[in-house]
Structure formats: C-alpha cells, structure tokens
Write a structure and sequence with these properties.
It contains 3 helices and 4 strands, in the order H-E-E-H-E-E-H. With 197 residues, the protein is α+β, with helices and mostly antiparallel strands.
C-alpha cells in the first residue's frame, strides 16, 4: 500500500514542477515581451522626437528657401531696373555728346530699340552735322533723317526728325567708313528734306 502513495506524491511533485516550470516560462515570456514592448515604445518616442526635430529643421529650411527666393526676386528686380536705367542714360549721354551748337532737342522717344528725335536747329548745316555725329557714334546705327522743314523766318528756325537704333556693343571702326559713301552729310532716307545753302 505504500507504493501507490509514493507514486501519487511523485505525480503531484511532477505536476507542481511542471506548473512551476510553466510559470517560470510564462514569466520569462512576459518579461521578454514586456521588455520588447518597452523598447519599441522607447524607439517610437525617440523617433517621434527625431521626427519633430526634423520637422522643425524642414520648416526652417523652407522658411530660409522662401526668404532666399524673395531676396533673389528683389535682386533680379534691382538688376533689371539697373539694366533698364543703363540704356536710356547711356543713350542720353551719347546724344548730348553728339549734339552740336545751334541744334537742340524737343522730344526723344525710345521704343523697340528705335530712337526717334524731334528737334530744331538754326540752319540745315548744323542739323547735318548732328546727323554726321550720330552716324559716327560707335553705339548708334545708321541714322535716317526723315525731314528738315523751315519752321519760322524770323528767327530762322528749322524743324527736323531723325531715327536710328542703339547698340550696347560698339560698331567696328572700319564698318562706319564703308557705309559713309552716301553723301557729304551722311543723310540717308531723307523724305521731304528741304535744305538751303
């Protein structure tokens, strides 16, 4: 009768041992999973902090890019304004250098690269000198005197109109001499010109 009790105790011990082993394995499994879960939570929190930092950096970069674009637009606008100012200033400078005595300007218009000058002179020779000066100016192309009309007798005044083009690059010096064989005054394309000697 003692043998079954020993077997029963052995079974009980075995069951208790298996239950304890199950508890240990379950505890280890829970510990590992809990640790993995905590690590993943830490990773998520760390990545969220990194994402927030990167988001702040991205916003700073976008803000910097917007400021840079605005500054570039202002620089481009300033350069364009300088370029637009340079042409008329240079044109006026050369026209004033080419303008002889006894001739003056009433109106000058610039459009599409063409310059039209309306003015007056005290004699046709002075106006012809102005045409020659424009013709010989390296930054002006061949001028065309559209007309010279006598505006008044006392004092003797003549109206004129002349057109020519402006170039940012000067003419080749030899090219001006080749095209200058059209007459003593260098007037080409003059329509209705009345000159008195």
């Amino acid at each position: 009768m003692a043998a079954p009790a020993a077997g029963s105790n052995l079974n009980t011990l075995l069951i208790i041992g298996l239950a304890g082993l199950g508890l240990v394995i379950g505890g280890l499994y829970w510990f590992v999973k809990n640790r993995t879960l905590n690590e993943r939570k830490d990773q998520v929190a760390s990545r969220r902090i990194e994402a927030e930092k990167l988001d702040a950096i991205i916003k700073e970069v976008e803000s910097f890019q917007r400021r840079k674009d605005n500054l570039q637009k202002r620089i481009d606008l300033i350069n364009q304004l300088k370029q637009n100012q340079r042409g008329p200033v240079r044109i006026m400078d050369h026209v004033s250098q080419d303008l002889p005595d006894l001739v003056w300007l009433d109106r000058m218009s610039i459009g599409g690269g063409a310059i039209t000058i309306n003015g007056r002179g005290l004699n046709p020779n002075a106006i012809a000198n102005f045409v020659d000066n424009v013709k010989n100016d390296p930054y002006f192309e061949e001028p065309q005197l559209r007309y010279i009309n006598q505006a008044s007798v006392v004092p003797l005044v003549y109206n004129y109109e002349m057109t020519f083009h402006f170039s940012y690059t000067p003419k080749v010096p030899g090219a001006a001499g080749a095209s200058g064989a059209t007459g003593a005054t260098g007037v080409t394309g003059a329509t209705g010109a009345t000159t008195k000697k």
